Give the backbone structure.
Amino acid sequence: MITDENANTVERILEQRRTQRYQLQLPLQIVQLGDQRVNRTEKTRDISSGGVCFLSPTNVEVGGRIEYLITLSGSNPPVRIRCLGKVLRSQQPPAAEDVPQFEIAVTMERYTFVRADELEVVGASA
């Protein structure tokens, strides 16, 4: 039986991941979904060394490839990380029924740091 006292323990067990997740809201730019070039800006909800979760007003196809850039806040010049991964989950949380929001979870299979002088090239290629 789950009580208020052990509810946190049960929640932690259900939320265990291979890597530690950090609740960070960082700018995330999607530049490619599958074979389609896009230019969408979202914000991360949480991030780990294995992937990222973000909220989006648009659903994304599960299983598809994704290329995205994360901007680390508080740096000048900005530090951006170009990531390649796969969409693991795209679902609408029950609390988001009033305003359509999808919770998107993606892997971070490969990544590279983008130098400041490459930022214009990244924006132009999207």
In short: Residues 121-126 have pLDDT under 50 and may be disordered. The first strand starts at residue 27 and ends at 33. The chain has two helices and seven strands. Residues 35 and 65 are 8 Å apart (CA to CA).
